Amino acid sequence: MNDVGQRGEMRHGEPLSRHTSWRVGGSARRLYRPADSADLVHFLGGLDPDEPLLWIGLGSNLLIGDEGFSGTVIETQGCLTGLELFGETGLRAEAGASCAKVARFASRNGLVGAEFLAGIPGTMGGALAMNAGAFGGETWDWVSRIRTIDRQGRIRVRGPDAYCVGYRHVEGPAGEWFLDAELTLSPGDGEAAMARIRELLARRSRTQPIGLPSCGSVFRNPPGDHAARLIEAVGLKGDSIGGAQVSEKHANFIINTGDASAADIAALIERVQTEVERHSGIRLMPEVRRVGGEQ
Ligand SMILES: Cc1cc2nc3c(=O)[nH]c(=O)nc-3n(C[C@H](O)[C@H](O)[C@H](O)COP(=O)(O)OP(=O)(O)OC[C@H]3O[C@@H](n4cnc5c(N)ncnc54)[C@H](O)[C@@H]3O)c2cc1C
Questions:
Q1: Which atom of ligand 1 is nearest to 80's Cα?
Q2: Residue 180 in contact with residue 150, Cβ under 8 Å?
Q3: Can you tell me the mean pLDDT for 118-127?
Q4: Given the DSSP bridges, would you call strands 240-241 and 90-94 parallel, antiparallel or unpaired?
Q5: Which atom of ligand 1 sits closest to the CA of residue 121?
Q6: What's the gap between Cα 202 and its chain centre?
């Protein structure tokens, strides 16, 4: 039952495998889906200061251990999904808006630059946390302002200069999460942008195992090389542990063939790291964020 004044949805003992694209992960003690940002402020304001918190968007870059999460998960996808235009070229997106919707909304409104987001199966919040990117575009290239929220429910407005941003790496003020972002895009031909989105999606489905449970690229590309090339070079394409398998289509993807556990995936990640390092001297670093499990 909801606490007084709390309008969102609380689930207890929620299996996180339902909330991650790898379809693995144990249960969360509680999972909260806020009704809107005001409700989130209210919810966080009443939270025990020692309660462990985990934010998830679409769970498309998360490996959650089989033991689950013994705190509260805040899920933004499907809840904080607002999108609006402002000024000549501004687009404001709430943290739970999907990247695909942001890309299409921009194009439909004659704004270009965000097309690369179309094939990234995450939320705006996840894209901000990861500096998600594809086909030469990166999320933070377009961010002009963001709003964050802390665990007491206090909201702050920040500029990109408050963050140290790199390749799949973002570091900012501790103890704050993304509530929404303002992107400054470029005016342009919306139909051409839609055509580019279609082309980028087609390119993805030719080269990636789309449709099978995965987390996209597991490892960051090391400087001047590609993780997929290094993995292929040591003959690990198709290699598996339990239900986890290095994709035959794209060696930097690990897919859940049906009954993988998080431990299977973690063990395969480790095997890939060990073998690649033994052959090339390069230690591949995971792009995927781990929660729990053997680190
Ligand atoms: C098939 C496939 C293809 C992919 N292709 C790409 C690609 O081309 N480029 C790319 O960059 N990535 C790609 N990814 C990975 C993933 O989609 C991105 O990293 C995406 O940005 C993650 O968003 P999410 O909402 O799913 O985040 P989640 O996986 O839910 O979370 C990722 C991290 O962000 C944090 N987080 C989530 N929301 C917030 C918030 N509001 N505030 C603060 N922190 C938050 C989480 O705590 C976690 O640490 C792919 C994944 C898949 C499955």
A1: 41
A2: no
A3: 97
A4: unpaired
A5: 17
A6: 21
Pocket mutation for ligand 1, best pick of 120, 140, 210 (most atoms within 8 Å of C-beta): 120
- Give yes or no for residue 1 having a pLDDT over 90: no
pLDDT value of residue 215: 97
State the Cα–Cα distance between residues 37 and 147, nearest whole angstrom. 11
pLDDT in tens, 181-202: 999 999 999 999 999 999 999 9
The rounded distance, in Å, linking the Cα atoms of 246 and 202 is 22
pLDDT for the residue 51 = 95
Query: pTM higher than 0.85 for the full model?
Result: yes
Q: For strand 69-75 and strand 27-33, is the pairing parallel, antiparallel, or unpaired?
A: parallel
34 C-alpha to ligand 1 centroid (Å): 19
Residue 115 falls in the annotated catalytic set? no
C-alpha span between 57 and 80 (Å, rounded): 10
